[in-house]
Amino acid sequence: xxxxxxxxxxxxxxxxxxxxxxxxxxxxxxxxxxxxxxxxxxxxxxxxxxxxxxxxxxxxxxxxxxxxxxxxxxxxxxxxxxxxxxxxxxxxxx
Length: 94
Description:
By secondary structure, the chain is of the alpha+beta class. The chain has helices at residues 42-56, 71-79; strands at 2-5, 13-22, 25-33, 61-64. Strands 1-2-3-4 form a four-stranded mixed beta sheet, with helices on one face.
C-alpha cells in the first residue's frame, strides 16, 4: 500500500493506493483520496507511484477496475493512458 500525506493537512493521510501483484501484471485494487484532497493531484500522484512500483517489479502491465458510475476516476485513468480492457455486467437479483 502506498499512502500520500499532505503537509497542508497537518501531515494526515490524503489518500492511498493498494496494488496487488499478479503473474506478469499488477492490479490496482483500491485508490482512495479523501474528500478534501480530491481534484488536487493526489490521485494522479498515487497512480504514478503505483506505476513506478509495477515497473520496479518488472510487471508487463498494470490494470485498474473502476465502477461505471465513477466518472471522475474514468477521467483520471484516461488521462494517465488507461484504456478499456474488459467489461463486467451485473444484474441485481431479487
